[in-house]
Design brief:
The chain is an alpha/beta fold. It is built from nine helices and seven strands, in the order E-H-E-H-E-H-E-H-E-H-E-H-H-H-E-H. Strands 3-2-1-4-5-6-7 form a seven-stranded parallel sheet, sandwiched between helices. Bound molecules: nicotinamide-adenine-dinucleotide.
Length: 258
């Protein structure tokens, strides 16, 4: 259970739904957690970790702010694992996207991930290695709304491959997971307002359900661990089978009840 004892794991977006699950998963396995989040919820997320006996610290900053990121990482003793998990979308269709909102969302999603990777690499190189895991999304490979966010996620997939290629010689691995819909507080709230919303969504998932936050953490944990020591540059869907194909269309084409 203490497979990450002595390791420092930096998790961006640590106050959010998946971020809290990631923090708990690594913390319960002995890691020191450095949470980065711009939200006021950071204080409550830290308390929740400490209540579970986890060694944790939170830094309140926007990862799109390169100077703030560089300063924060400069203060850390070491970084063994970086999980670029922070992400958001405020504009769900192109019609509502402005040049300003596009730039802002690319900055907060993609540039922020680069800023953190850039700073983390400088800590990892002298340590002899490390692991970077980018949390992208199925939106990074298909058009599913949220255009700036999706372009940012596609960029994170590309960034993962570049990091893997250029940093392997330093013992640094970089991998990416693409979650489908995850049962975070946001989706729980939506489902409370409209119980049909998840049923409608679940039709698109071959497993007939959406992803639990802990299931994302389990895959990220594998990618951060020595169990994946030869895995770098991988992009792994954690999406209950969504990326396998279009099951709704397959049902319509075959007239079979899959
Ligand atoms: N929930 C889903 O269904 C789903 C699906 C696919 C991918 N994802 C991805 O998983 C990650 C976590 O999502 P979540 O559902 O937990 O979202 P969430 O909104 O619950 O949490 C995201 C956290 O990131 C923080 N954050 C956002 N931008 C930031 C910035 N620029 N600087 C610092 N902190 C910032 C927010 O304050 C928030 O606490 C995101 O990257 C998201 O795109 C989520």
């Amino acid at each position: 259970m203490n497979s990450f004892a002595g390791k420092t794991v930096v998790i961006t977006g640590a106050a959010g739904g998946i971020g809290q699950s990631l923090s708990l998963w690594f913390g319960q396995r002995g890691a020191r957690i450095i949470g980065i989040d711009k939200s006021v919820n950071a204080a409550a997320a830290l308390t929740a970790l400490e209540d579970n006996g986890i060694d944790a610290m939170f830094l309140r900053l926007d990862i799109g702010d390169i100077a703030a990121v560089a300063e924060a990482f400069g203060e850390l003793d070491r970084v063994d694992v970086l999980i670029n998990n922070a992400g958001y979308s405020n504009h769900h269709v192109l019609r509502l996207t402005t040049p300003e909102s596009w730039a802002e969302e690319i900055n907060g999603n993609l540039n922020g991930a680069f800023n953190c990777a850039h700073a983390a690499i400088e800590r990892m190189k002298p340590q002899g290695g490390g692991a970077i895991i980018n949390i992208a999304s199925v939106n990074g490979q298909s058009a599913l709304g949220d255009p700036a966010y999706s372009a940012g996620k596609a960029g994170m997939i590309s960034l993962t491959r570049t990091l893997a290629q250029e940093l392997g010689k330093h013992g640094i691995r970089a991998n990416c997971v693409m979650p489908g819909t995850v049962r975070t507080p946001l989706w729980r709230e939506r489902a409370q307002k409209d119980p049909e919303v998840l049923k409608t969504l679940e039709r698109w998932y071959p497993l007939g359900r959406i992803v639990e936050p802990k299931e994302v953490a389990e895959v990220v944990g594998f990618l951060a661990s020595d169990a994946s020591s030869a895995v770098s540059g991988a992009v792994i869907p954690v999406d209950c089978g969504l990326s396998a194909g279009n099951i709704v269309m397959t049902r319509e084409l075959t007239l079979e009840d899959l």
